[in-house]
Design a protein that fits this description.
two-stranded antiparallel sheet; AB_hydrolase_fold; alpha/beta; 379 residues; globular; 8-stranded mixed β-sheet
């Protein structure tokens, strides 16, 4: 990695850890007596604090959304294609805040943290958190940073759910909502995929009821399998076919039931093994449950139009044609409800072969539309 970063990069960045001593009541009925959130910021907050943009991450995301932590980093942050000078979320214009959510395993308070009431690692005792809880903690974060209203709240997938929840829970505090490759709630099929992934973790002998960290072990096999299941759903059939087809690792079949013979098998195993070295199993359970629980319209008898009647933000929704995990039809449900509620909404369905992961990729038409909308936001 060169020491000179690309001109459109935010360059070297450093995480910050913010401590919150005020207890946080969670939707599950339990209370976090105190907690910390790890964040990164890019750009400068203007004098009126009117140019702030919040980045909400998806299931396995975190605070490191753009730039580099050192000159030795091989890859930048997970959404570097969208954040930086001249990029859709232009750091010459916006002050960008990215965080690791509660329950995460990248520095914010979660299952790998020490419970101040017991002096032991939380593990499976960390309370269940929801999208609503995340947004409430993010509102406190905004208060700490002196931000009364976000110019925009932006997120893809589970991040898009958070962006949508922001407009419902704090309508006066969001001017624009960008909800990308997301849904108003999970389908039964999506919940089923999440349950298979959770069962892979729960059935690992080294999960130990969620207290594996105290025993010095990691349920690597279960976590790896969970990642493999999830990764399959993030890619389209076309993307997997183009990348791997039926290519073999060797010149011929081995007729061995336990060997890795196809390139796609090797790829999935690598993804699973790599993920198991950097992610926490309890966090994975928490994040997938938060996905399952999200259903803001349930408070209004399932009527999404009524749910969105009080929002004040303008909306931009984007979806991708081959995304079958969060299909365009799910984004259109939100669009239709917003139109019925007489709200301002823009919608773009992008023809892209990459599946759900397309929202993370530098697809020219996608980034052009993304930039076009962000450029319209006055600060």
């Amino acid at each position: 990695m060169p020491t000179v970063f690309p001109e459109d990069s935010v360059g070297l960045v450093s995480p910050q850890t913010l401590h919150f001593s005020e207890p946080l009541l969670l939707a599950c009925g339990k209370t976090l007596p105190e907690y910390q959130l790890v964040i990164e910021t890019y750009g400068e907050l203007n004098a009126t604090a009117s140019n702030a943009v919040l980045i909400c991450h998806a299931l396995s995301g975190h605070h490191h959304a753009a730039g580099y932590h050192s000159t030795d980093d091989r890859k930048p942050g997970w959404w570097d294609s969208a954040i930086g000078p001249g990029k859709p979320i232009d750091t010459r214009k916006f002050f960008v805040v990215a965080l690791n959510n509660l329950g995460g395993c990248n520095g914010s308070t979660g299952p790998t943290s020490v419970n101040p009431e017991t002096g032991r690692v939380y593990g499976a005792d960390f309370p269940v958190v929801t999208v609503e809880d995340w947004v409430n903690s993010q509102a406190r974060l905004a208060d700490r940073l002196g931000i009364q209203q976000w110019a925009a709240v932006v997120g893809g997938s589970l991040g898009g759910m958070q962006a949508l929840q922001w407009t419902i829970a704090y309508p006066e505090r969001v001017r624009h909502c960008l909800c990308i490759a997301s849904a108003p709630k999970l389908s039964a099929q999506n919940i089923a995929f999440n349950e298979v992934a959770r069962q892979a973790i729960l059935s690992d002998p080294e999960f130990l009821g969620g207290h594996f960290q105290e025993k010095g072990v990691i349920p690597r096999r279960g976590l790896g399998l969970a990642r493999m299941v999830g990764h399959i759903t993030y890619l389209s059939d076309d993307a997997m076919g183009e990348k791997f087809g039926r290519d073999l690792k060797s010149e011929k079949l081995n007729y061995d039931l336990q060997s890795v013979e196809f390139q796609v098998e090797s790829y999935l195993r690598y993804q699973g093994e790599e993920f198991s070295t950097r992610f926490d199993a309890n966090t994975y359970l928490l994040m997938t449950k938060a996905l399952d629980y999200f259903d803001p319209a349930s408070a209004h008898g399932g009527d999404l139009t009524r749910t969105l009647a009080g929002v004040k933000a303008d909306f931009c929704l984007m979806s991708f044609t081959t995304d079958w995990r969060f299909s365009p039809a799910r984004s259109r449900e939100i669009v239709d409800a917003l139109i019925a509620a007489k709200k301002n909404v823009s919608y773009l369905e992008i023809d892209a072969p990459q599946g759900h992961d397309a929202f993370l990729m530098p697809i020219p038409r996608y980034l052009q539309a993304f930039s076009g909308y962000m450029n319209r936001i006055s600060v």
